[in-house]
Amino acid sequence: xxxxxxxxxxxxxxxxxxxxxxxxxxxxxxxxxxxxxxxxxxxxxxxxxxxxxxxxxxxxxxxxxxxxxxxxxxxxxxxxxxxxxxxxxxxxxxxxxxxxxxxxxxxxxxxxxxxxxxxxxxxxxxxxxxxxxxx
Length: 135
Description:
Blueprint: E1 3-5, H1 7-22, E2 26-28, H2 29-50, E3 52-54, H3 68-79, E4 83-87, E5 92-96, H4 100-108, H5 114-124
Parallel strand pairs: 1-3
Antiparallel strand pairs: 2-5, 4-5
């Protein structure tokens, strides 16, 4: 059976995977955007084999250079306490702030195979501890 995946669900599953695999890491704003956009492209290419259909796109608007749907999904995750923004002098950094327990809860109910999520996170999101995050 094919399941529909929403943008909010997809971002939540990526963040949950980051939390379980990496614990406390910081992601620069541009890294988060690029990683989620690339992860979406991977999902889109493998929907058939994963038995899912996404009902969203994260393709950037050519005029503004970003995806409003992606920005909305990030704000949604931040508003629910899954992601915390940290502002410094040079850049915005994000840290996954959901608990490991909640992350595992989401992953146990995922419509997307854990192997795919692990692979995408390993490939698309650099692992860098808070003290290593630089612009």
